[in-house]
């Protein structure tokens, strides 16, 4: 991947850590957890309809209940807020300002945060609502929903006995009888394989518009924490339909490369640079596109706040990024 293909420059796109807390009020956090609860119940009913007895046999209801987030982490919320700034300002060809000297006691920083916080709260809550069901569903198929849920050996043995006992078929010798029983809808890694292919197409489409996207790195399929394990993807190389090399950035991990292959009834991590450097606890099981909250422009500061359209701000964005990338 050429650096000119990335359209991401950390020095320009990352505003740094804005330490004002809480970003979401206590009531908003409770509202978010209630939404996860209603989404979990709706997903449980949906899987019961789609999978029938398999959903009960593998206790998807209990799994979803344990999967549901119990609290919101301030660190995860703050990291998601920072990634949203990177994504949304880049999408609108702008730059989120870094915190000025003085920190939280600076009047300039306080006035900026006062304008920023309502927009960030709306973006965080809307993004969580758009992504909650898929985050839960991916983990269900990764951990609990099997590809072939009904044992076939006992049924095959019974069919063999009935065929051999049938007088019309006694002259036939049945040497081998095999059954392959599948769910009425794709499940398990079959579902992940199809969903992953669709996600790669969506990520490629977003990146082709020369803007960064937020992705969810699923490291532990049996746990879900709101806004956990998000990163900014800025380039994607697809070696084949089901093997991809993802270039992503994270304020703590820095720029990393993840190469993942899905197929042949398995998910294989070919290369995970964060794992190899000991910067992450466990390898990624899968990744998916984090859906954008909306297309509303973020708040502008400085001169652009007063003349948002009279000056070709997008041209300045391109010049700054072009000069940085060519160094």
Helix and strand topology:
Blueprint lengths: L9 H4 L12 H26 L1 H5 L2 H8 L6 H18 L15 H38 L8 H13 L22 H21 L4 E6 L11 E11 L2 E8 L3 E10 L2 E7 H4 L9 E4 L13 H4 L6 H13 L2
How would you characterize this protein structure?
It is a single chain. With 327 residues, the chain is an alpha+beta fold. Helix content is 47%, strand content 14%. The chain has helices spanning 10-13, 26-51, 53-57, 60-67, 74-91, 107-144, 153-165, 188-208, 273-276, 303-306, 313-325; strands at residues 213-218, 230-240, 243-250, 254-263, 266-272, 286-289. It has a six-stranded antiparallel sheet. The model is unreliable at 1-5 (pLDDT under 50).
Which key features would you list for this structure?
single chain; 327 residues; alpha+beta; six-stranded antiparallel beta sheet; 47% helix; disordered N terminus
| Widest beta sheet: strand line-up | 5-4-3-2-1-6
**What share of residues are in beta strands?**
5-15%
**What is the SS-derived class?**
alpha+beta
pLDDT below 50 for ≥5 consecutive residues: which ranges? Answer: 1-5
Number of strand elements: 6
Helix percentage: 40-55%
Mean pLDDT: 83
């Amino acid at each position: 991947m050429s650096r000119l293909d990335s359209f991401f420059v950390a020095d320009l796109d990352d505003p740094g850590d804005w330490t004002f807390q809480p970003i979401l009020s206590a009531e908003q956090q409770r509202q978010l957890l209630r939404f996860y609860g209603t989404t979990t119940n709706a997903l449980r009913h949906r899987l019961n309809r789609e999978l029938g007895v398999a959903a009960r046999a593998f206790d998807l209801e209990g799994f979803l209940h344990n999967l549901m987030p119990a609290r919101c982490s301030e660190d995860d919320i703050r990291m998601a807020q920072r990634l949203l700034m990177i994504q949304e300002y880049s999408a609108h060809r702008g730059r989120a300002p870094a915190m000025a000297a003085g920190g939280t006691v600076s009047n300039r920083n306080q006035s900026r945060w006062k304008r920023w916080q309502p927009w960030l709260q709306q973006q965080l809550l809307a993004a969580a609502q758009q992504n909650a069901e898929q985050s839960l569903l991916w983990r269900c198929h990764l951990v609990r929903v099997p590809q072939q849920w009904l044992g076939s050996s006992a049924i095959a043995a019974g069919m063999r006995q009935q065929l051999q006992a049938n007088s019309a078929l006694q002259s036939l010798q049945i040497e081998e009888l095999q059954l392959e029983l599948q769910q009425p809808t794709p499940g398990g890694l079959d579902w992940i394989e199809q969903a992953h292919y669709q996600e790669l197409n969506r990520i490629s489409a977003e990146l082709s518009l020369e803007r960064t996207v937020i992705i969810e790195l699923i490291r532990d399929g049996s746990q879900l924490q709101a806004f956990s394990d998000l990163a900014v993807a800025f380039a994607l190389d697809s070696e084949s339909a089901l093997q991809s090399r993802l270039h992503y950035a994270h304020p703590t991990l820095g720029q990393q490369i993840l190469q993942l292959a899905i197929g042949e009834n398995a998910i294989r991590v070919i290369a995970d640079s964060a794992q190899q450097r000991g910067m992450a606890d466990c390898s990624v099981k899968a990744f998916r596109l984090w859906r954008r909250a909306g297309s509303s422009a973020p708040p502008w500061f400085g001169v652009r706040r007063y003349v948002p359209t009279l000056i070709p701000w997008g041209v300045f964005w391109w010049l700054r990024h072009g000069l940085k990338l060519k160094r």
